[in-house]
Amino acid sequence: MACRDSGFVQVAFSDFILQIGLHGKFCPISAFYNPDPSFVMHCIYNGNAVFDWDKNNLRKIKAHRINVEEVEKALSNDPIPIYEQDVDGEMRYVYYGETAAGRLLAVVLTERGEKIRVVTAYDLDAGQKRDYLARRLRGE
Q1: How far is it, in rounded angstroms, from Cα 97 to Cα 72?
Q2: Are 27 and 13 in contact (CB under 8 A)?
Q3: Helix crossing, 68-76 with 55-63: angle to 10°?
Q4: Could you give the strand order of the β-sheet that contains 80-87, starting from the edge strand earlier in sequence?
Q5: What does each C-alpha distance from 140 to 15, 45, 51, 82, 97 come to in angstroms?
Q6: Computed over its alpha carbons, how large is the radius of gyration of the chain?
Q7: Do 118 and 107 contact (CB within 8 A), yes or no?
Q8: Confidence class of residue 48 from pLDDT cuts 50, 70 and 90?
Q9: Nearest to 98 by CA among 82, 120, 78, 127
Q10: Residues near 46 by Cβ (< 8 Å), separated by ≥ 6?
């Protein structure tokens, strides 16, 4: 499990269920392969999620002038799931989120073992910002 206690939505990230959300409900793996936007749960950091930070992913976010707190806040502030991709057999998920200061970020993450690993994060470009704002206006 990727969280320290049990009050989380359980989200399917790979071949099993990973707990990282809000209501303790199950999100079937099929939701990620045939996404239904009303059913796919958001990856939410709420203070109990276990993140895997090391010099490699810290270097990647630092290259974009982003810090750990900004990434974790963007993931706790109702992020929008954008897409998933398989990278050498590892599923990666891209979320758009907003920091406490209103900075709009794309966060790429994966699940490794019992932790959520941020691969990188970067500022949204103009087109991504339009997409993010349009999605928010639609209630996503």
Answers
A1: 10
A2: no
A3: 90
A4: 80-87, 90-98, 104-112, 115-123
A5: 26, 17, 25, 11, 11
A6: 14
A7: yes
A8: low
A9: 78
A10: 8, 22, 76
The pair of structure tokens assigned to 109 is 């993450």
Residue labelled with tokens 């891209």: 94
Residues constituting the chain: 140
Q: Does the model's pTM come out above 0.85?
A: no
pLDDT digits (tens, 9 = 90+) for 56-79: 999 999 999 999 999 999 988 889
Tokens of 52: 């895997």
d(CA 61, CA 69): 11
